[in-house]
Amino acid sequence: MDTLLAADAELDPKRLAEAFQAFSQASDELAAAYGALERQVESLTAELAAANAEANRLREEAERNKRLAAMGEMAAQLAHQLRTPLAAALLYAGNLENPDLSSDSRTSIARKTVDRLKHLERLIQDMLLFARGEVLGRENFPVDDLLTDLAHTCEPLAARRQVDFRIAGRSSGALMTGNRKALAGALTNLVENAIQAVAAGGVVTLAAVCRDDQAILSVSDNGRGMTPDVVARLFEPFFTTRSDGTGLGLAIARGVARAHGGSIDVRSAPGVGTEFIITLPLTQSSCRNA
Ligand SMILES: Nc1ncnc2c1ncn2[C@@H]1O[C@H](COP(=O)(O)OP(=O)(O)O)[C@@H](O)[C@H]1O
Ligand SMILES: [Mg+2]
Fold first, then answer.
1. Confidence (pLDDT) at 290
2. Are the C-beta atoms of 93 and 79 separated by less than 8 Å?
3. What 3-state DSSP class applies to 71?
4. Which of 7-11, 25-29, 193-197, 235-239 has the lowest mean pLDDT?
5. Which burial class, exposed, middle or buried, applies to 229 when counting CB atoms under 10 A from its CB (0-12, 13-18, 19+)?
6. Does the beta carbon of 247 lie inside 6 Å of ligand 1?
C-alpha cells in the first residue's frame, strides 16, 4: 500500500493530498460512527440491565405472592378443620341448657360434647407435630429397642380391638441415629391405621430387617385395603376417610421418615390388605444380618 501511495504521489502530489484528505475524512466519520455505536451499545446494555432487574423483581414478587397464597390457603384449611369440631361441641353444649332434657339425654349430649372437644385437642396436637416438621433431639439406639417401645404401645391397642398384633424379625443389634420418640410415634400411627382397617380377628404385623445399612420397617395388615384413588391422596394433610380422623397421621409419618433421611412407601389391594414400609438409614456398618 505504502509503495502504491508512494508511486501515486510521485505521479500526482495533488491526487495524493486529495486521497489523504478523503482518508482522514473517512476515518473521522468512522470514529464518529464507532463512538455512536459505542453509545448505542452502552444504552442497550443499560436497558438490558434494567429489563433484567425488572424481570427479577417481578419473579420475586410472583414467588412472594405464591407463598402468601399457600399460607392463606393453609390458614383457611386449618381454621376450617378446627371450626368443624368446635361448632359441633358448641351446638351440643347449647342443647344442654334445655331444662326438659331427661338425665339420660343430658349424659349422652355431654359425652358427645366431650368427644368433639377431644377430637379438637387431637387435631391441635397433630397439627403441632406436623408443623414442627423437623425432628429435634437425636440419639443412638438399637432398632430392637424401638420395636420393644412399639410392642408396649400397640399391644394394648390391638387387644382392645381383638386384633392379633405380631412383631416379626429382629435387626440383630443394628443401630440407628435419630429421634426415638418421633419414630415410635410415626410407626404407632401406621399400626393404629392398620388396627382400624382390620375386622376383629385380623392380623397386624410389624417387621424389621436391615439390609445395606438400611432398616426396613414394615407394618402390614390383612384388612380392607385401599382403592388407588385413596392411595393417591394418603399423604395429603387432612385427608381422612374416618369420621373421627384428623388426616394428619400419615403426613406426620412421612415428615418424620424424611427428617431421618428415609422414606415411606405403600402397597395396598382392596379386600386383601395394606403394607406401609419405612426405610431409614442405619448408623454405619451396624447391620449384621445382611
Ligand atoms: N392400613 C390401612 N388400611 C386401609 N386404609 C388406610 C390404612 N392406613 C391409612 N388408611 C387410609 O388413609 C387415611 C389417612 O390416614 P391418616 O393420615 O393416618 O389419617 P386418619 O387416620 O386420621 O384418617 C385413613 O383415613 C384411611 O382411609
Ligand atoms: Mg391415622
1. 43
2. no
3. helix
4. 7-11
5. exposed
6. yes
Specify the pLDDT at position 284: 75
Asked if pLDDT for residue 170 goes beyond 90, the answer is no
- CATH for the stretch 1-132: 1.10.287.130
Ligand 1 mean position, distance from CA 186 (Å): 13
In the chain, where the domains are located: 1-132, 139-281
In the reported structure, the alpha carbon of residue 227 is separated from the centroid of ligand 1 by a whole-number distance in angstroms of 12
Reported as a pLDDT band with limits 50, 70 and 90, residue 71 is: confident
Q: Which amino acid is at 249?
A: G
Mutational test site, ligand 1, from 193, 248, 250, 252, max ligand atoms within 8 Å of CB: 193
Is 7 exposed, middle or buried, given 0-12, 13-18 or 19+ CB atoms closer than 10 A? exposed
Nearest CA among 239, 268, 267, 269 for reference residue 252: 239
Contact call for residues 224 and 289 (beta carbons, < 8 A):
no
- Indicate the fold that domain 139-281 takes in CATH: Heat Shock Protein 90 (3.30.565)
Structure confidence at residue 275 (pLDDT): 98
Give, for ligand 1, the residue of 231, 240, 252, 272 to mutate: max count of ligand atoms closer than 8 Å to Cβ. Answer: 240
Q: Does the CB atom of residue 253 touch ligand 1 within 6 A? A: no
Measured between alpha carbons, how far is residue 281 from residues 4, 171, 263, 276 in Å? 84, 13, 10, 17
272: Cα within 13 Å, side-chain hemisphere: 7
Tell me how far apart the alpha carbons of residues 85 and 9 are, in angstroms, rounded to a whole number. Answer: 106
Q: What pTM was estimated for this model as a whole? A: 0.71
Residue 252 · residue 185 · CB < 8 Å: yes
